[in-house]
Amino acid sequence: MAPGHQVVGFTFGVGAVTLIPAFEVVTIHPFQMILFFVFILLGSLLPDIDTPTSTLGHKFWRGLITIFTIAFLCYLFVPHYLDTYRDELKVFVMLLLPILIMIRGHRKMTHSFVFIGVLIGYSYILEQTLQVPRVLLDGLVIGVISHLFADYLTKKGIPLFYPLSKKHLQFLFTFRTGSSSEKVIVYGLVLWNVWFLTQSIL
Fold first, then answer.
1. Do the beta carbons of residue 154 and residue 176 sit within 8 Å?
2. For residue 144, which of 194, 179, 109, 92 has the smallest C-alpha distance?
């Protein structure tokens, strides 16, 4: 459930800003803090990109088809545009290709330690080549970790060691996705975040 993952992601973000000194810079710059949490919310949905019916997956695949259609039309009718943006296209394909390779069905590669490792590696590439602020990329990684943590608490679990092992692992105490237990946990986290942030401001 997308809202549930975003609530968990937001909670992880609050914890990072509160407990990890490296994120103090975010609290100093309000706009950067907003972007930090935007990246967390995006990351909290990213692992479900392997599911075309998910909130992010639907937009991703529709957007990808649109991009490839535009690129194909440019190749047919205005090929000089592709030459103009050749370097940008190389970066785009370089970043996209591993993601497409990892998408092999729901809760597989994108729900494993390998995905987190690849994302951290790509964050470094984006930071070096495109000068994307590290703190924002860290927010994306935190969001992904929060998603995997939330799915780890479900009865279906996640294949943390995929592709070495396809076995789904789960926490000792689990709940079903979309169940009343999940809703209670999500609402509880919302109330805790509101209380914690209110106390921090006051």
1. yes
2. 109
Backbone angles phi, psi at 153, to 5 degrees: -85, -5
Count of Cβ atoms closer than 10 Å to residue 32 Cβ: 16
The answer to whether the pTM exceeds 0.90 is no
Query: In which region does residue 167 sit, left (phi positive, over 0), alpha (psi from -120 to 50) or beta (all else)?
Result: beta
Residue with tokens 């996640």, as numbered in its chain: 158
Cβ-contact 174, 155 below 8 angstroms: yes
Beta bridge partners of 158: 169
CA distances from 130 to 34, 107, 133, 137 (A): 20, 30, 9, 12
Identity (one letter) of the amino acid at 140? L
Question: For tokens 């009343």, what's the residue?
Answer: 180
Q: What is the pLDDT along the chain (202 residues), one digit of tens a residue?
A: 567 888 898 999 888 888 877 777 676 677 888 888 888 988 888 888 776 666 666 666 666 667 667 777 777 777 776 677 666 666 666 666 666 655 655 677 888 898 899 889 888 887 887 777 888 888 889 999 999 999 999 888 899 998 888 898 888 888 887 788 888 888 999 998 888 878 766 5
What φ, ψ does residue 188 adopt, rounded to 5°? -65, -40
User: Contact, 170 vs 157, CB < 8 A?
Assistant: yes
Give CA separation, 126 vs 33, 164, 201, in Å.
19, 28, 34
* Cα 155 versus chain centre, distance: 21
Per-residue DSSP letter, 177: T
